[in-house]
Amino acid sequence: MEKEERRVGGYLFGSDKDVELARAEQAKITYLEEKMQYSNPKSVLSAYNKLVEGRVFTTPVGFKYLEKLRDFLIENGLKDAICVIPLHQVYSYDPEEDRPKRPFSSLEKDREQRELRRLLRGSLILNIFLLILIIGMFVISITGDSPTILNYERTVQNKYAEWDAELTKREEVIREKERSLQITDQNTEQAEQ
Question: Rounded to 5 degrees, what are φ and ψ at 92?
């Protein structure tokens, strides 16, 4: 809305929502003015008190109307029976008044809890990272060729099996050569004597 469109009842409002509220209050005021019996001040007093207690008006437009009714009632001698118009806004800022009413220890507890949550999050992230590293190390050690503590026994057994097979082959080749040369164990026994 343009600034000109935010004017209601001689007031310039800061938001569209406030303008709508003021216009609604203006409609209520028009309706009340049609029904108000100014010839009977006690009925005006009753209507005024109900409007104040019910918090029907919350904008300056509504407060201006309540002031008009209050002035009428004062002029008609009903000053003592009038309700005070409550304001639900703060017009000045006092940092001392806005200070939290909680005890200081409660503030410290909140700060400690935030710090604890931050540390817990960091610890959790670090633990997940370390778990991933450990799993990666196990995968590498199981799939790798070099002997590790996890597959050392199997690697050594495989190595000995290879050596045994190689030695058995060599022995077989040597025996074949001995047979072809007709060298027997007897010849080796005689040479020893």
Answer: -140, 155
Query: Residue 150 pLDDT more than 70?
Result: no
pLDDT of residue 115: 92
* Chain centroid to CA 58: 35
Cα separation, 148 vs 138, whole angstroms: 10
Show the domain range for 130.
94-144
Please tell me the distance from the alpha carbon of residue 120 to that of residue 113, in angstroms, as a whole number: 10
Q: What is the DSSP letter of 8?
A: E
17 assigned to some structural domain:
yes
Using H for helix, E for strand and C for coil, what is the string for 57-76?
A: CCCHHHHHHHHHHHHHHHHC
Task: Tell whether 152 is covered by a domain.
Answer: yes
Q: Cα separation of 20 and 6, whole Å?
A: 9
Confidence band, pLDDT 50/70/90 cuts, at residue 3: low
pLDDT digits (tens, 9 = 90+) for 87-100: 777 667 666 655 55
The answer to whether residues 59 and 122 belong to one domain is no
Split at pLDDT 50, 70, 90, the class of 191 is low
Q: Which amino acid is at 36?
A: M
Of 35, 60, 81, the one marking the end of a domain is 81
Residue tagged 């050392």 (tokens): 152
Let me know whether 152 and 139 are in one domain.
no
| Counted domains in the chain | 3
> What is the pLDDT, as a whole number, of residue 131?
96
